[in-house]
Design brief:
Layout lengths: L7 H4 L8 H15 L9 H18 L2 H16 L5 E6 L4 E5 L2 E7 L5 E5 L6 E3 L2 E5 L6 E5 L1
Parallel strand pairs: 1-7
Antiparallel strand pairs: 2-3, 3-4, 5-6, 6-7
Length: 146
C-alpha cells in the first residue's frame, strides 16, 4: 500500500469518496471483464496484469481501515505537489453533513466535483494556519479559512 503508483480510484473508475458498496459493485463488474479465464490466449498476459492490479485495488478499497489509510496517503501526496488553489473559502460556507457517523463539510467545485473536509478520518493539508483541500473530481484545491 505504500506504493501509490497508479491511483486505485482511477484504476477502478471511481471517485475518491465512493462507498464500500460502490467499490464492491465496480470491482465485480471489472473483474468479470479482466479475469484471465474469460479472455482469449492472445490477451492472457495483459489480462493477468489487469486482474492483479484490480485485485490489489480491491484489497485496499474494499477494506474500510485500509481505505482510510490509502486516502491519507493520497492526501499526503497532494502536499508534495504544487497546488492549483482556485479560491479561499471560509469553513462556514461549507455544507455540514454526516457520513458514517462523522461530521463532514463539503463545498461544490466549479467542475461538478466537491471539496470534502472531515476532521476525523481525512486529514487535510495544513501549512501553518492554512488548510488546503483537493476537489474530488479535478486538480483544483481550495484554501479553507478555519
Amino acid at each position: 500500500m505504500s506504493n501509490l503508483e497508479g491511483n486505485f480510484y482511477e484504476l477502478m473508475n471511481l471517485d475518491n469518496f465512493s462507498t464500500l458498496a460502490e467499490v464492491k459493485t465496480k470491482y465485480q463488474q471489472i473483474i468479470r471483464k479482466v479475469h484471465p479465464d474469460k479472455l482469449q490466449q492472445s490477451n492472457l498476459a495483459k489480462s493477468e496484469q489487469s486482474f492483479l492490479k484490480i485485485q490489489e485495488a480491491w484489497k485496499v478499497l474494499g477494506n474500510p481501515q485500509k481505505k482510510i489509510e490509502y486516502d491519507l496517503q493520497l492526501q499526503q501526496l497532494i502536499t508534495q505537489q504544487d497546488y492549483n488553489i482556485s479560491d479561499c473559502i471560509p469553513l462556514e460556507e461549507f455544507e455540514e453533513t454526516f457520513i458514517n457517523e462523522e461530521t463532514t463539510f463539503s463545498y461544490d467545485c466549479r467542475c461538478g466535483g466537491s471539496y470534502f473536509y472531515c476532521h476525523d478520518n481525512i486529514q487535510p493539508v495544513v501549512q501553518g494556519e492554512t488548510v488546503i483541500v483537493a476537489c474530488s473530481n479535478c486538480s483544483l484545491h481550495v484554501e479553507v479559512i478555519t
